[in-house]
Amino acid sequence: MIDIACIIATAIIAVASLLTLYRLARGPGVLDRILALDTLVINTIGLIVVIGLWFRTTMYFEAALLFAMVGFVTTVALCKYLLRGNIIE
Amino acid sequence: MVIAEIAISLLILVGAFFLFVGSLGLAKLPDLMRRLHGPTKATTLGIGSMLIASMLYFWIVEGNPSIHELLITLFLFLTAPVTAQMIAKAYILHNIQEREVLTETGRPVGWATLDAAEADEHSEVTQTSSNA
Fold it and tell me: d(Cα B29, Cα B105) in Å, to the nearest integer?
């Protein structure tokens, strides 16, 4: 039962990532694209957790944690650059 | 055990649904301040219920409880508001029309993005940064 739920969840997350990619390609401003990248990272974390449940292994949680950290730092650095014209002052 | 499996499957599906709702909101809503709403639901409810499902699975079915999921949850819950606020600040700075819609702050200084407060002379941090 968990396997079927994982397959359905993977399909739904794939569609969600496609919607995010649409906003990433289309988005009128640079901030829309930053937000789309952030959402794409969130979707990827969800996908990694689902795959970890599917293959019954805890190996992927470190990958999810690393994705969360890199996504946060990326978003904040891009916003900081837009706000101040510089990242580390 | 069957009840646990049903609960885990439901939590996985609920998480996937909220991730989808977040991305749909990002794709469909008209401007950035409204688009900020969608991914927040994906972060908190979507990833949250998926990680609860994962914790339940490794605790009840496999028999070894793990706290890695709690770390991810804690980190995401701490960073999501910071990200949203940074994006909103940059949006206010870059959009001229958006500034006219902003209400008054009700304080001597305006919005922090546009109208920086006077540097506090007794503060050590601001002195070092102004010297540098």
Answer: 27
